[in-house]
């Protein structure tokens, strides 16, 4: 069910809101008023999906598919339906984050809208009931997508120079993440339509670092959001440390978990989270073959190359995020990550490199320019880690590259900001 934030209160909300009714009512009222007042200026706070509290579903694949490469159509549809609201939520947040960077005149209203929506999911205790193994393996990328979007909005709010509270910084140990449907791609829905593209080339200053002034209630709501994210981080890590399947603990699922945990760690300044994410990369990259292929993904039959790309994308993105914070793994693992990325690029041009390993034709089309934009959005953070003028020029006509679970407009975040920085030096 889709609804506006203000409608959520009229429907009674969730029991957890009883502790802070006045605060949230104020947030909703201000977001609604802001949306109404600024409709004439072109921004209206969009409808958001209802918060996802519980998830419980089985595998997308047929029971007798040992390589987990034969989709069960009914099971796949059930998983997509269960994850649909959270995927939609992330896509909306990613578009708003992109727009907030571009449209400085609407920035304050966009941030109010987004923070209010994320606060609502936090107050509802979203993802608090994860009741199946498969759900535990697949919801964390959604947590990561929300966390990355939130970090972008938070960066636009002036921060008080107060000591961080123990409640935020000491919460948690470690956490988990997910695996996406090989056809999840289709659900990313290229939600960058022509309309979205127009937003991204707005004539307003792209590089202007204008922060927004929000009422104290919004600042207080960030504490609630960060408590929620840190708690999810704990739950994710606990799952992987206690119940994570041996193979999944070394494949793309762990990589997506690491991305979520690293972003949460950066947001709440939890070094344990960041180290767990880096350790996860080391665990995965310790399995790498000399040619750069990842053995856990090469087991996936016709989806092997798809999952190679699906493992590399979150690791490259997390590594680029950490570089901005002057954090990284030892050089051995940086080199291995580059090996995996370069094998992925070679295999996109020549899928037979993977077909020789799997004896199966691959679902990934041959040729970099034949890929959907969200499938190769990780190339922007890759270029932020290591310059490659030829690759840069090759993907230039495809820009902007977007992937909501990686952070939205990856071109804006990693490529355009790099150009702006060089121009200002």
Structural features:
425 residues; two-stranded antiparallel ribbon; 58% helix; globular; 6 strands; 19 helices; disordered N terminus; mainly alpha; two-stranded parallel ribbon
How would you portray this structure in words?
The chain is an all-alpha fold. 58% of the residues lie in helices and 3% in strands. The strands form 3 sheets. The chain has a two-stranded antiparallel sheet. Helix 3 runs antiparallel to helix 4, helix 4 packs across helix 10 and helix 11 packs parallel to helix 14.
SS-derived structural category: mainly alpha
Proportion of residues in β-strands:
under 5%
- Helix count? 19
Q: What is the mean pLDDT?
A: 83
Q: Name the shape in a single word.
A: globular
DSSP strand count = 6
Helical amount: 55-70%
Largest sheet: 2 strands, antiparallel
Task: Spell out the helices and strands N to C.
Answer: EHHEEHHEHHHHHHHHHHHHHHEEH
Q: Mind telling me the C-alpha Rg?
A: 21 Å
Span between termini: 49 Å
Give the strand order, joined by hyphens, for the main sheet. Answer: 1-2
Query: Which stretches are poorly predicted, pLDDT < 50 over at least 5 residues?
Result: 1-29, 32-40, 161-179, 185-207
Structure, briefly:
By secondary structure, the protein is mostly helical. It has helices at residues 5-10, 21-37, 73-102, 107-123, 133-138, 140-154, 166-169, 184-188, 194-200, 216-242, 252-268, 271-285, 295-298, 304-324, 331-349, 352-358, 379-385, 389-395, 410-424; strands at residues 2-3, 48-49, 54-55, 129-130, 402-403, 408-409. Residues 1-29, 32-40, 161-179 and 185-207 have low confidence and may be disordered.
């Amino acid at each position: 069910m889709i609804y506006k934030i203000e409608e959520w209160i009229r429907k009674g909300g969730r029991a957890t809101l009883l502790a802070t009714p006045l605060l949230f009512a104020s947030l909703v009222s201000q977001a609604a008023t802001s949306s109404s007042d600024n409709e004439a200026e072109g921004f209206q706070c969009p409808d958001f999906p209802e918060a996802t509290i519980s998830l419980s579903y089985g595998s997308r694949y047929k029971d007798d598919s040992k390589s987990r490469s034969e989709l069960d159509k009914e099971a796949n549809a059930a998983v997509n339906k269960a994850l649909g609201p959270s995927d939609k939520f992330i896509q909306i947040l990613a578009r708003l984050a992109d727009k907030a960077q571009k449209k400085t005149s609407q920035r304050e209203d966009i941030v109010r809208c987004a923070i209010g929506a994320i606060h609502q999911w936090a107050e509802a205790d979203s993802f608090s009931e994860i009741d199946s193994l498969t759900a535990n393996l697949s919801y964390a990328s959604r947590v990561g997508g929300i966390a990355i979007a939130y970090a972008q909005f938070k960066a636009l709010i002036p921060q008080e120079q107060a000591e961080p509270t123990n409640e935020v910084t000491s919460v948690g140990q470690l956490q988990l993440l997910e695996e996406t449907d090989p056809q999840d791609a289709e659900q990313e829905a290229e939600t960058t339509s022509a309309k979205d593209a127009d937003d991204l080339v707005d004539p307003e200053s792209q590089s202007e670092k204008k922060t927004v002034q929000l009422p104290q209630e919004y600042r207080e709501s960030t504490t609630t959001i960060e408590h929620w994210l840190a708690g999810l981080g704990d739950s994710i890590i606990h799952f992987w440390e206690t119940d994570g399947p041996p193979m999944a603990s070394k494949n793309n699922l762990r990589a997506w978990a690491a991305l979520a945990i690293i972003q949460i760690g950066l947001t709440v300044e939890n070094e344990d989270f960041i180290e767990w994410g880096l350790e996860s990369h080391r665990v995965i990259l310790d399995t790498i073959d000399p040619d750069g292929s990842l053995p856990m993904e090469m087991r996936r039959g016709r989806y092997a190359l798809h999952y190679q790309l699906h493992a590399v994308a979150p690791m490259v993105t997390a590594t680029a995020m950490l570089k901005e914070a002057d954090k990284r793994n030892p050089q051995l693992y940086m080199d291995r990550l580059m090996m995996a990325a370069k094998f992925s690029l070679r295999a996109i041009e020549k899928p037979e490199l993977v077909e020789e390993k799997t004896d199966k034709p691959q679902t990934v089309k041959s040729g970099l320019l034949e890929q959907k934009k969200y499938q190769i959005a990780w190339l922007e953070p890759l270029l932020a880690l290591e310059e490659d003028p030829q690759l840069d020029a090759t993907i230039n006509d495809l820009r902007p590259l977007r992937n909501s679970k990686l952070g939205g407009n990856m071109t804006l975040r990693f490529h355009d900001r790099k150009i702006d920085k060089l121009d200002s030096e």
